[in-house]
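Appendix B: a complete holo record

For completeness, this appendix reproduces one full record from the ligand-bound portion of the collection. The bound molecule is NAP. The inputs are the chain sequence and the ligand SMILES; the output is the full three-dimensional arrangement of the complex, encoded as structure tokens. No fields have been trimmed.
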Amino acid sequence: MTDGVGPGGSVALIGAGNMGIALLEGWASQNLIGPVSVIEPQPSQRLQSLCAERGYALNGDAARRDAVVLAVKPQALESGAAAAAPFIGPATVVVSILAGKRIADIAAHAPAQAVVRAMPNTPAAIGRGITGAFASSATSAAQRGLADALLRAVGAVEWVDDESLIDAVTAVSGSGPAYVFYFAECLAAAGAEAGLPAALASRLARATVEGAGELMRRQSQTSPGELRRRVTSPGGTTAAALEVLQAPDGLAPLMLRAVAAAKRRAEELSG
Ligand SMILES: NC(=O)c1ccc[n+]([C@@H]2O[C@H](COP(=O)([O-])OP(=O)(O)OC[C@H]3O[C@@H](n4cnc5c(N)ncnc54)[C@H](OP(=O)(O)O)[C@@H]3O)[C@@H](O)[C@H]2O)c1
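The structure of the chain with NAP bound, as generated:
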């Protein structure tokens, strides 16, 4: 193990599928960490090249690491934890991104005191994710700092102080990208209904969601509500549409029900 944890600590990644490789690429691009071990039963060409370029040990060594990141599918927790065991020592923090697996589930399979449960989302693949994270009480400030740096390599990180809030995080940001994609689909369908050729409606809707998202990012000091008000002239076209969206049976209660359903399902999956 390296002296003291924090950026520069040693890491083992267990499972390098979609999310695992996104993390690995984030660490590599930021020169974030010390020695890296990767365990992946079916390494892709991309993974093999990255490991070769960076000198990461792929399916090789088994030295104790400062952090072990579990990125297998939730149903592979048992085999993933078995693969992780040789890397775990008394001072190792285990960072799990497994949806629906609680700290207690992880600790029951992986022999670690310090466990961080994290919920990233798919824009992590382009370094623009947002992750909600919770640390077990046995996690030291330095271990939490290392976990934070590892997760931050693919986007922002928000820490919660109650594990049950991870289900709400899952319902908002974990599942959220799909809501936005669906919004773009619905906008495109409505555009086609309004007379536009379907392909054009689709391009307009897509570019609108992309552009509005980027604008919101660049004007991060301004709330979404304020950005909306700035583009809504009284009596204008946007106001006419917002009147429908803001009706008592409009988007707000629909979103409330959608997020509540996702949260309920996350609670069921966490047992
Ligand atoms: N994708 C997301 O948006 C997202 C968001 C939040 C959380 N997550 C969580 O992230 C985790 C990974 O998701 P993913 O989409 O990256 O899944 P994935 O693409 O299936 O990646 C998981 C990888 O782990 C490998 N694996 C299976 N058993 C293993 C073992 N015993 N040791 C080492 N590696 C093993 C799998 O190999 P095989 O294919 O050979 O089984 C696969 O390559 C999931 O638990 C998911 O809940 C994902």
